[in-house]
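Re: your question from the hallway

Yes, I did run it. Sequences:
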Amino acid sequence: MLKIDKLIYNYKNENEYNFSLDAKRGEIVGITGASGNGKSTLLDLIAGFLKPTSGTITFDGKYLGDLPPEKRPITILFQNYNLFEHLSVKRNILLGINDSSQKSDLQKVRQILEEVGLKGFEDKKALTLSGGQQQRVALARSLLRDKPILLLDEPFSGLDFDTRDNMLQLVQNITKTKDICTLMVTHEIDDCRKIATKSYEVKNGKLTLL
Amino acid sequence: MLKEYWRFKGSLIPGLFVSFALLTLAVLLFLTLFGATDANTTIFGALNQRVIGLLKFTLFQATLSTLFSALLGTLLAWSLAHQPRFFSRSLLIALFSSSLVLPTIIVVFGLITILGRNGWLNHLSNYLFHHSFEGFLYGLSGILIAHTYLNASFAARGLLHSFESIPKERYKLAKSLGFSTFKRFVVIEFPAIKSTLFSISSTIFLLCFTSFAIVLILGGNPSYNTLEVAIYEAVKLDFDISFALELAFVQLSISVIFVIFSSSLKTSVSNIKIQESIIPWRDAFGVRVLQKITIFISGLFFILPLVAIFHDGITADFTRIFKSVVFMKSFSTSIIIASISSVITVFFTLFLANSKRNFALHYRIPKSGIGKLLAFLISFSGTLYLAIPSLVLGLGFFLLSQRFLAPANFWATFALLSANILMSLPFSLSVLYPSILKTAKRYDKLCFSLGISGYERWKYCEWPYLKESIGYVLALSFCLSLGDLGVISLFGNQDFSTLPWYLYGLMGSYKNSDASGVALILLVLVLSVFIFVPKLFKGDRFVKN
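Structure:
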């Protein structure tokens, strides 16, 4: 279980954020709220991009606060720049695991691409893909990294309705089948209604259960 | 806090090392210069009647040059922004961009060919009106013309980008409110270009304040001497080192004050590609005519001296030129020194920029007093050249060479390399730093979360996005180095010379035909490198910058 306990962060001594929440494996926690209220700050704190002033983050009882981002049991999907456009889909995915091109890894890439509905896309350049396809590739990489926490920082906000629905469905399936813990930041309350097990609203730097 | 510094040690240490090495060099030269001056010398003590006269003229010509360059540059950029489509617009803009790297001696040579006593203008005037202009190119007017030539085009190039970055909606608003052209400029355009204009003007002022070759050749007589030229004359002609030191002391003190004053302003050199103009409708007829006339006259003013160099140079006896041992030595010295210094400049710039960005991104290293100090030191070491003019730098090395004997030409080579690197760093940093910061802002979180670092990060994340800028910086620093006439003027001799110094010698001994040929060789070399080297580093078509 991911447990965030009184996580406090002061930004330029002006805004104070104070977050507490917990999320079980197999659960999708939706986090919504107006822009600038601290939704992405919460994910940055969990991922280790920002250092909290005080408070704890634990996963399955293990304290994560001291670990750098790459050592945390976390994988993230951002709104933009999830992929290096000049690299192939295959290379982008392998970057998340290691930089080898061993047969077993390539087999895994093919398999995971099939899971996200992109069979045969491994040699295409990322730039040639549509927005939805790019996010699927990023999601495929997240899955292959096999981390128990998936953070989604408004990754589907630029997508059309159908693609967005498909992606949400995919996230829901993955969370259940892989038994991972997903935190989804979105400004669309509908997204939370569709797939979240529970939802929080961020207001003035604090979380309120909806 | 140490933990964060340690986490980014790979990017911090090389930059800090380069920064401290540059600052140590500056301190060493400073101690050498002022160790040699009278212990009681202060800036006020050094300001005797003669020095005050030199200082007054230096400031006067720099102020006027900056004013003319900024006015013409703004008018030209405004005209170009409002004239989005005309034949050879992009070629003209590319030529304006090259003004930064044109060797000053080439510019002077071209201007003399057009505006000199035997220049094209006088021939035309004689033919049409039986009247000739006598010697207006020598003295203050010549200095101002040459400075405006070099800097107005530099200003126009930088300001054009600012004009074209104004959101289209602002123009729509101005149109809907019925603004006149003047009111539109005052309310919408000037506020948008103001900061760029001030930063460019401060750079131009510093460049003119420390200008050497133009004043040396076009100054004409001692009443038009600047501090830089007076230092040169004190060392090379009068052998009066103590007077040179007094001048260096004044020059250095004032330059440092200007650099500190202008350090809040950005150095405005950019390799950002010019977009098609965004202004969607045409101005009134009279305004359009004014814009077209401005572009035509400025274009002519800029292109004619270059055309003159081609026209006169092409008839030179190149067999004789290439057979000259001194020419070949100068040529090879120039190429070797420019190549080495441009490669070192690129590495130094990358190290400094990579270190500096750690302090600009709060999620990398949180803001602190030490962080601010280190960031300032890195920035300052990259702009040292603006604080230490090349003649002062050269004088420092000259004194070191007197004190510590070394193999022949060691000090000259070392001084030239150091000066060229320091000269290029402010410009190369202003090109590479924004790109390197942008890449970090885009991909830091992804790289951190995926654990991509070191060589892997460089290969996949940095190089593809930086290589175009690196190519530009390489060409820029090569050309700046190739055209410099500052430090070499103190060290140049029969055995050790560069192309600009060789050309200066030919001009001084009135070997005009050979001088035309060498000027053409230098011009072709600079333009070829500046145009073609960046093409070798052309970006991957899949990379979105």
